[in-house]
Design brief:
There is one protein chain. The protein is α+β, with helices and mostly antiparallel strands. The chain has a domain of 116 residues: 50s Ribosomal Protein L5, Chain: A (2-Layer Sandwich). It contains 4 helices and 5 strands. Strands 2-3-1-5-4 form a 5-stranded antiparallel beta sheet.
Length: 182
């Protein structure tokens, strides 16, 4: 059975995007291609356990084993050497991507205190990124087992040609954007 958000995309979003942008070719309709989640580990240079804890939390959130990101170059001011682990990342596609997006939009974002919507700024190519200050907003994380409070960046990569199409796609999927000011 396909995820709920994917069903919504197939049944409602495709037709509304096709109509609003006048797209004839079904392959040109904007779609969600992947979601990339990145956790940079603050203090990973001093404490190697931070990368392991972040990897464990990210695996619990996404259901997929994260890859460890290593430093590309040495920076003496940060006591960082090339090749040291400094973060973890996961790329979600297909069913896991749709499932994660559904949980993020319907469960996680509304749990954030004083949440008024996410910023409407896209990257110029129809992709959207948002940052979360803490991994504790996800219901999969147990408060008692968290060693370090860790933030994350979540990037929605779309096949949209421009920001207008990317915004329309994400808005139709239920992304709670702040109201645009004219």
């Amino acid at each position: 059975m396909s995820p709920r958000l994917q069903e919504k995309y197939k049944s409602e979003v495709i037709s509304s995007l096709k109509e609003s942008f006048g797209i004839d070719n079904p392959m040109a309709i904007p779609k969600l291609e992947k979601i990339v989640i990145n956790m940079g580990c603050k203090g990973a240079v001093e404490n190697k356990n931070r990368v392991d804890a972040a990897a464990r939390d990210l695996a619990a959130i996404t259901g997929q084993k994260p890859t460890v990101r290593k430093a590309r170059r040495s920076i003496s001011g940060f006591k960082l050497r090339e090749g040291m682990p400094i973060g973890v990342a996961v790329t979600l596609r297909r069913e896991t991507m749709w499932d994660f997006a559904d949980r993020l939009i319907s469960i996680v974002l509304p749990r954030i205190r004083d949440f008024g919507g996410v910023k409407t700024k896209l990257d110029g190519r129809g992709n959207f990124s948002l940052g979360l200050a803490d991994q504790l907003v996800f219901p999969e994380i147990e408060f008692d087992r968290v060693e370090f409070s860790q933030g994350m960046d979540i990037t929605f990569v779309t096949s949209a040609d421009n920001d207008e199409q990317g915004y329309a796609l994400l808005k139709a999927l239920g992304m709670p954007f702040k109201e645009k000011k004219n």
